[in-house]
Design a protein that fits this description.
This protein is 25% helix and 31% strand. By secondary structure, it is an alpha/beta fold. α4 runs antiparallel to α5. The chain binds flavin-adenine dinucleotide. Flavin-adenine dinucleotide binds next to α1, α4, β14, β18 and α8.
Length: 329
């Protein structure tokens, strides 16, 4: 008896959208390989690890509204990877503090936001430290090349780009203009993120806070989330507007300005150890949102948060739904 040849799919990007697409395709019987430029999976759902401390420095938590995503969430909760987070949340607005009135359930991965990515990647063939810089359409298939390894010998029946739009745009230079136009249609803003480690817990009347009208837009005590051990650490995100306007500052300059703003808000980091990270493409999305893009004539799909609302849930759904389309081909 002849066994059916499995279709091969290359997924570029091991953020939540790429991983959700890849795991679903794998469950449908496709042979999937994931290529990621960083040294670990998770993308913008990541956790910075230091000596004796850690901090979620990308996505802080997520919400779940769609039944498909809720189903995945239930499985992660059952596996002990995700739990509810019940912080006291402050809101700074019009020069004063108030308590947040939102009671929508918030979820976090444990012990760090990168756990969902690690969990999803655990059954996949994942090529880390591979910055893909060549996409070669050849004989109705795709061949890839990376900055680190040159052209790979393998060929793929489908290609999935699970990247922020501007990074997909760079990669698709040289491909037909309709593909490039999609990627160039969305601008994404950066985000400066400061992580502060304290020897003692700062006394603030909240675990996390939304800040409006300032350089900073979010402050969060990592230890208020479940299963976070190590030194007291706080994550401070600059606003999208300020970050984008100041994206070319040096880390020292950005950090100095954000720490001065944090001090005004009551978080004095003078005695804290500071790290800073610049997210070049943190946020941005198309409106209306197509959820994902599949171009069967090119055997090419695009998924990611920018195609579906700009958050964790949207990114996961984007990848999952794209996989469903590829299955139907
Ligand atoms: C600071 C910050 C705070 C956020 N807070 C929240 C929040 O609280 N709640 C929420 O729901 N969402 C939040 N988000 C948004 C959320 O993180 C994203 O929506 C989601 O993680 C996007 O997943 P993705 O798979 O679409 O993209 P990404 O996570 O960006 O994944 C893309 C991957 O592609 C890789 N890559 C890029 N180029 C290449 C290449 N050439 N070759 C190989 N690999 C490549 C990248 O390294 C990355 O791993 C936040 C994001 C940021 C940055």
């Amino acid at each position: 008896m002849q066994t059916a040849v499995k279709k091969r799919v290359a997924v570029i990007g091991a953020g939540i959208s790429g991983l959700s697409c890849a795991t679903h395709l794998q469950s449908l019987g496709f042979e999937v390989e994931v290529f990621e430029k960083s040294r670990g999976p998770s993308g913008r759902m990541s956790t910075r690890q230091g000596e004796g401390w850690s901090a979620d420095h990308g996505a802080q938590y997520f919400t779940a509204r769609d039944p498909l995503f809720k189903h995945a969430l239930d499985a992660w909760i059952a596996d002990g990877i995700v739990g509810r987070w019940n912080p006291r949340i402050g809101v700074f607005e019009g020069c004063r503090w108030r308590e947040s009135s939102s009671n929508e359930p918030r979820y976090v991965a444990n012990p760090g936001m990168n756990m969902i990515g690690k969990h999803l990647a655990s059954t996949l063939t994942l090529h880390l430290n591979q910055t893909i810089d060549q996409l070669v359409p050849i004989n109705n298939q795709w061949q890839l090349g990376s900055n680190e390894s040159g052209l790979f010998a393998s060929f793929f029946d489908f290609l999935v780009l699970a990247l922020p739009a501007p990074q997909a745009a760079v990669l698709t230079k040289g491909l037909p203009s309709e593909i490039q136009e999609i990627c160039y249609s969305v601008k994404m803003d950066g985000c400066w993120t400061v992580m502060a480690r304290f020897s003692e817990r700062p006394s603030l009347p909240f675990d996390a806070a939304f800040v409006n009208g300032k350089k900073i837009s979010w402050i969060c005590r990592n230890q208020s989330k479940p299963y976070r051990s190590g030194h007291e650490s706080w994550t401070i995100h600059a606003s999208a507007k300020w970050s984008q306007e100041n994206i070319e500052l040096t880390p020292q300059e950005a950090s100095a300005q954000l720490l001065a703003c944090a001090k005004q808000l009551g978080l004095d980091c003078s005695d804290a150890e500071i790290s800073i990270h610049r997210w070049r493409y943190a946020s941005g999305f198309t409106n209306p949102s197509p959820e994902f893009i599949f171009l069967p004539e090119f055997k090419l799909g695009l998924c990611g948060d920018w195609l579906n609302g700009g958050r964790v849930e949207g990114a996961w759904l984007s990848g999952r739904k794209l996989a469903g389309q590829i299955e139907n081909i």
